[in-house]
Amino acid sequence: MTDAQHIDGFILTPAGFIRGVLEHQEGRIRRIDGTPVFEEEVRHGAQDLPLVLPGFVDLHVHGGGGHDTMEGGAAVAEMARLHARHGTTSLLATTMTAPMDEIRAAMKALSGLCADRGTGMARVLGVHLEGPYINPGKLGAQPDFARAAAMDEVRALHAIAPIRLVTLAPEVPGHLELVTQLREAGFQVQIGHTLGTYEDGVAALARGAGGFTHLFNAMSGLHHREPGMVGAALAHAHYAEVIPDLLHVHPGAIRAALRCIPGLFCVTDSTAAAGMPDGEYRLGRHRVTKCLGGVRLPDGTLAGSTLTMDQALRNLVQRLGLGIEDASRRVSTHAADFLGLENRGRLTPGAWADMVVLDRGLQLQRVVVEGESIDLANA
Fold first, then answer.
1. Is there a cis peptide before residue 173, judged by omega within 30 degrees of 0?
2. What CATH code is assigned to 55-338?
3. Is the pLDDT of residue 379 over 70?
4. Which of 76, 198, 213, 360 is the most buried (most CB within 10 A)?
5. Where is the Amidohydrolase-related domain (predicted)?
6. pLDDT tens profile 157-212
7. How far apart are CA 377 and CA 379, in angstroms?
8. Helix H segments across the chain?
């Protein structure tokens, strides 16, 4: 048994901040002791004490560090190392719409990583299947290989690597019935890449869909006489993901979603360009260009992001004005809750020792994944 390790600071527990100490051993949190404090003291108190928050949980990751999920081989391992250096302690590797043989090949490369976390990596919890079960009229940056879903096909892919989340367009014939089947089989479902109506969204939620993929992006928008899929989300959703790079979604729209959706959580939708200089990168079958902080197809369409979760946290606090506790929940706890993970996204005895240690400017000082301290030298 390894010796217990201790971290002192302002520690965010499920009950709020304490000023105290966290002890972890063998990959798990063993003890948290301290005195409750208000966030005002956390923001302005002892400057030598760091902030200790739950590690970030990102449910929508296409790439990073020059590597793309669809490449296979060692690409996802390198992607998971890049995001770990930016505070993401667990993630879903996210596929692209592609011919089924390419999706199967990507899943085969993922299967081992889902079973065993490598050194220096974020935990790959499983797969977010974003496509091919989307509306061909709302591809966004997805390649044009959309198709209707079949339960047997999802099960066959799941047998290769664990699928945790499926994005689909509910208006595609047969997909409403599939939502029910997927939920009964234990898969979580998000609505996305959709031209569906408000009524389609409400029907999908009633059948068990849990949330929305990159809210506002690649879905029918809100109009006061045709509320669209955005209207269904704002009126009825408990969970939805949003990309807070402040390029995909205007801060005002994010503020509206924060008022409406209790479990709104952040994702990066990051591509191979995350953590890399400007230039050309792969996104599934596409070649995309990173410049001016964004990633785009040749026609100018936004194609994922360069966002990392530490920057997402800073954007929430420093640009949108959220409190640190609220912002932390939206980059960790809510996503874990959405997937039903009681031992991640929170600092409590028995949970995985996944945490980030930050200074008062919300810059990372340390990242711990399942008890392993991550080398931040190249972050």
1. no
2. 3.20.20.140
3. no
4. 213
5. 51-372
6. 999 999 999 999 999 999 999 999 999 999 999 999 999 999 999 999 999 999 99
7. 6
8. 39-44, 75-84, 100-115, 151-160, 175-184, 198-206, 228-236, 251-260, 309-314, 324-328, 334-338
